[in-house]
Design brief:
- The structure is a single chain.
- This protein is of the alpha+beta class and 247 residues long.
- It folds into 2 domains: 4-122, 2-Layer Sandwich (Killer Toxin P4, Chain A), CATH 3.30.430.20; 137-243, Killer Toxin P4, Chain A.
- 38% of the residues lie in helices and 24% in strands.
- The protein has helices at 4-19, 40-60, 86-103, 148-168, 195-213; strands at residues 24-29, 62-67, 74-80, 110-114, 117-122, 137-140, 175-180, 183-189, 218-222, 226-231, 242-243.
- The strands form 2 sheets. The protein has a 6-stranded mixed beta sheet with strand order 6-9-10-8-7-11, covered by helices on one side. Strands 1-4-5-3-2 form a 5-stranded antiparallel beta sheet, covered by helices on one side.
- Strand 7 (175-180) and strand 8 form a beta hairpin.
- Helix 2 (40-60) packs antiparallel against helix 3 (86-103) and helix 4 (148-168) runs antiparallel to helix 5.
- The protein starts with a helix and ends with a strand.
- This is Cysteine-rich repeat secretory protein 38.
- Residues 1-22 form the signal peptide.
- Belongs to the cysteine-rich repeat secretory protein family.
Length: 247
């Protein structure tokens, strides 16, 4: 028979392994009306773009890059979670940069979200644009949370609070994870967004997710420029999550 401490450790390890698995959450591709074979110049520029993003992103958790000249110019950005180490960031970016060109081949461009990072590239300059497309992906835990009404109120309060902090507190670099009583939350924006656009993206994403998932014990959603997640269970080690004051 497994002793209680060991049993707790095994459950905790299994949970953390599930939450940080290397598989992508989802990807979005830019629409296109034509297809062609990319030139060698374009491929070279794309490789240089990803190399730059992989090199520079772990330093601050976010970077943008432009490589080449028209008509073979490419734009890209990358970001990592704000609570992971440089090595984990680099590893995730390597995987993401390889997969995005398979998921969204030339001339589409697109973005892929992983648990630990996101990578986007395009032949168009998207840096100062707030995405108007309605692409949205979400996933819910099938089981409901205990005391669903109480859990709903905790989640709404928590997610509204951390969305505001992520958008308007420059020191957190548009990434926040927190716990409030029984609810855990995470929000993140790509840092090419303005403060108001980040807040708008997070709110739209969370409330769309919450409408579809409600009081389920876990929900995650991604759009082109932000992502949100909430859970009745912790995302990472408790010392990585800042405790929100409870009323």
């Amino acid at each position: 028979m497994i002793s209680p401490p060991i049993h707790f450790f095994l459950l905790t390890f299994a949970l953390l392994t599930t939450l940080i698995n290397p598989h992508s959450i989802h990807n979005f591709c830019e629409p296109t009306n034509y297809y062609s074979t990319p030139s060698s110049t374009y491929k070279t520029n794309l490789n240089l773009l990803f190399s730059s993003l992989i090199l520079n992103t772990p330093k601050t958790g976010f970077s943008t890059a432009i490589e080449g000249e028209p008509p073979y110019q490419v734009y890209g950005l990358a970001l990592c979670r704000g609570d992971i180490h440089h090595d984990a960031c680099t590893s995730c970016l390597n995987t993401a940069s390889e997969s995005i060109v398979q998921l969204c081949p030339y001339p589409n461009g697109g973005i892929v979200w992983y648990n630990n990072c996101g990578v986007r590239y395009s032949i168009h300059n998207f840096f100062s644009q707030f995405p108007t497309v309605k692409d949205f992906f979400y996933k819910c835990q099938q089981s409901g949370a205990s005391k669903p009404f109480e859990f709903k109120q905790l989640v709404i309060s928590l997610m509204e609070s951390i969305s505001e902090i992520a958008a308007f507190n420059a020191s957190v670099k548009m990434f926040v994870t927190r716990v409030n009583a029984r609810a855990y939350g995470m929000v993140q924006c790509t840092r090419n967004l303005s403060e108001s656009d980040c807040f708008k993206c997070l709110n739209q994403t969370f409330y769309t997710l919450f409408e579809r998932c409600g009081a389920t014990s876990f929900g995650v959603a991604v759009k082109w420029s932000c992502r949100v997640a909430y859970s009745a269970r912790i995302f990472r080690n408790s010392d990585r999550i800042e405790l929100s004051p409870t009323p």
